[in-house]
Design brief:
- It is a single chain.
- The chain starts with a helix and ends with a helix.
- By secondary structure, the chain is mainly alpha-helical.
- It has a 3-stranded mixed beta sheet.
- It has one domain.
- Helices cover 73% and strands 6% of the residues.
- The protein contains 7 helices and 3 strands; from the N terminus they run ααβββααααα.
- β2 and β3 form a beta hairpin.
Length: 221
Amino acid sequence: MPPLLIYILIPMVIGLWAQMKVKSAYGKYSQVPSRGRITGREAAQAVMASAGIHDVEIVECHGTLTDHYDPTHKRLALSHDNYRGHSLAALGVAAHEAGHAIQHKQEYAPLNLRMSLVPITNFASQMLPIAMFGGFFLFHSPIFINLGIAIYIVLTVFQLVTLPVEFDASKRAKAQLVGLGIVDQDELVGVNKTLDAAAYTYVAAFVSSLGWLLYLLASRR
């Protein structure tokens, strides 16, 4: 089987499948309101308060599924539907981001490692178009192949470290939502499906990055 098919096309298919899964799950459970009618913002605030966190700003951001936690500025950003909505999907996403804030406070090792990798990862991402453009026209040039390998080593390590950070945040979110009485046990099904589908995208990102790395290593031979 050609290396291109193994290392690039298969991860691409996995990535597309993961995106479909998360859109499907989020689309479905964003239409299912929670019984408690609590908003995503209120859920995030409650989850963080239970961990003694009162200094994280919760803001509304544009877009869909653009939710994120910024440890540098201690800011938790929720997209409009998740900030103001009270669906099971909104609560799951909000609690997940609050889980990152708890990780930050507790100095969760994988999160600290991920944060330390951000500067070099950003630099590698900026260099990637140069390596890909050069590789397209001068594919057999060892300079561009080695540059691409170095870049994808950084990106692959970053994606690998991201996995436990995201899985742990989802685990914390599920436990807190039930533990605090924000959702009932039977409502957790919708939360689980939303967060599990989102986790597939992180796995797909790692597989894709690893695929490119292996492809470039095979091309150097």
